[in-house]
Amino acid sequence: MYSDKVVDYFMNPRNAGKLDDANAIGEVGNPKCGDVMKIYLKINDQEIIEDIKFETFGCAAAIATSSMITEMVKGKPIAEALKINNKDVAEALGGLPPAKLHCSLLAQEGIEAAVADYFKRKTGKHPEGFKANTTCTACGGSCGEGAGQGHEEEEEIFVSEDHRAAE
Amino acid sequence: MTPRKVYLDNSATTQVDKKVLEAMLPYFSEEYGNPNSLHAWGRDARKCVDKARTQVAGLIGAEPKDIIFTGGGSEADNLAIKGTAWALKDKGRHIITSSIEHHALLDTVRWLGKNGYEYTILPVDKTGMVDPKELEAAIRPDTILASVMFANNEIGTIEPVAELGEVCRRHGVLFHTDGVQAAGHVKIDLKDLPIDMMTMAAHKMYGPKGVGALYVRKGIKLIPVIHGGGQEFGLRSGTENTPGLAGFGMAAELAANRLANGEIDNEIRLRDKLIDGLMERIPEVILTGHRTKRLPYHASICVKYVEGEGMLLLLDAAGIGVSSGSACTSGSLEPSYVLLSLGLDHSTAHGSVRITLSKDTNDEDIDYVLEKFPPIVEKLRSMSPFYKNN
Ligand SMILES: Cc1ncc(COP(=O)(O)O)c(C=O)c1O
Ligand code: FES
Question: For a Cys-Cys bond, which of B27, B272, B307, B349 suits B243, CB 3.0-4.6 Å?
């Protein structure tokens, strides 16, 4: 069900762990939904992402997308990093199963949350145009916590590999 | 050296035993008659079906004519629930079941709930046990049927079916149990048990998939789900699956032998070695289900701070096949309702792993799992935002 790339980035995660000298941290997701992603950034004076690490509680796709996005934004100015969206991440991984697209959304939101934290630390207030730090929209609100409004990925997804049947 | 392959997902399905396969093969092409035909070909096929019925009845202490063959466990569950509901609709329309039943049971009961029936779903305690007192309290004058599984597929807990059946008997309520996971693995003698109907599936006891049975105690009237030629005493029409039934019969006979000669005790020993070994080697692991009142082949745990799918895939890469009730393996974002019924919080339930042994699992297999599993947990925990030691 997973592409070779996803398996590779899951088995051999890049940039996994904590970053002790991070100057921005973003945490998104909700343990209730089964996905939590924490992104650590070290942003220099030119606003370039000098270093990045992630910690993720979640499925193989969640770990692979975190891993991939850290690689994609490392060394980039933050303005450019913010332009990378979940579809770019999924594409770079050779695609994701439909049921796992929400995991790539989490990766994109993780970067946004960390950058928001950077501005917040710098200016003392939450920057405009950024969502609050821990809002998770991954499940489209199906977990009943009220998040998830205004997202693109909301069409019903049919999954033929329904593992609940293997009981 | 080829890498070791250890299949430990026998609650999902088992490997067809060689002897079972041998018993099935003649009925595909050599003995191809229709058991309902009067000629020699038909009579040979009928013998095969009758033999299978005797073998399956023998496994559970039943009479052959009390065995209704079906196309698997789900169908037998449907026949028991819908068949009783329709047959007794003038007597009452209330059904009782438990929160940890298989979907084949729960979804059938919920469907009846949308079609003129009412139901009560009993809770379970933190070991997954249904309390007979709660069953008794839920019984109403219009209750016609209660269904509580013999043993649970996700957590292995064996329910107090004798007590539950006793309560039903006292109140004139029929008692059905889903014995899919238990039959062939736990000694069951229906002569001594107050069970009116029991579901079985061949593929959980080294038989073929798509073959099952419903035991129906003499005197109980059901309305069939599948109408037609009137096979299976009018309760399940359709030309009998002779190769499948030959296999089911042989699987039941072999299971009865294993239960009689104590082979199951070795499975219990290996199960306990696995459970104790994992608890010793991996910190912050909890066993799900009951510690002792559990299926002989069943180990299920929740590993804190990590998610089940990752463990499943890394174990798979090491040649070990297991399953998980985490949301990420189901595509639903909700962890298993069975695990949540135990009162586990969501994030713990996401870390579930089920390891189910077979009759052929040996000490080396268990040692291999005990060697491979702890570093996998460590690897995933090292990237978990929840793990304090990071
Ligand atoms: C407890 C239980 N009931 C019913 C079923 C359904 O049986 P089948 O897949 O043979 O229809 C299963 C397994 O799949 C099960 O574990
Ligand atoms: S908290 Fe995950 S979207 Fe609801």
Answer: B27
Residue B253 lies in a domain: yes
pLDDT for A96-154, tens place per residue? Answer: 998 888 888 999 999 999 999 999 999 888 888 776 545 445 554 444 444 333 333 33
Strand order in the sheet with B118-122: B67-70, B212-216, B197-201, B174-178, B143-147, B94-98, B118-122
Predicted structure pTM score: 0.91
Domains of chain A (ranges; CATH) run 4-149 (3.90.1010.10)
B312 in the same domain as B271:
yes
- Residue whose CB lies within 8 A of the most ligand 1 atoms, among B16, B102, B159, for a mutation test: B102
**B contacts of A142 (beta carbons < 8 Å):** 333
Ligand lying closest to the C-alpha of residue A164: 1
Q: Report the domain count for chain B.
A: 2
Q: Is residue B121 part of a domain?
A: yes
3-state secondary structure of A48: strand
User: Which tens digits make up the pLDDT trace of B259-311?
Assistant: 999 999 999 999 999 999 999 999 999 999 999 999 999 999 999 999 999 99
Complex ipTM: 0.84
- Catalytic residue set of B: 328
Which residue's CA is minimally distant from atom 3 of ligand 2? Answer: A137
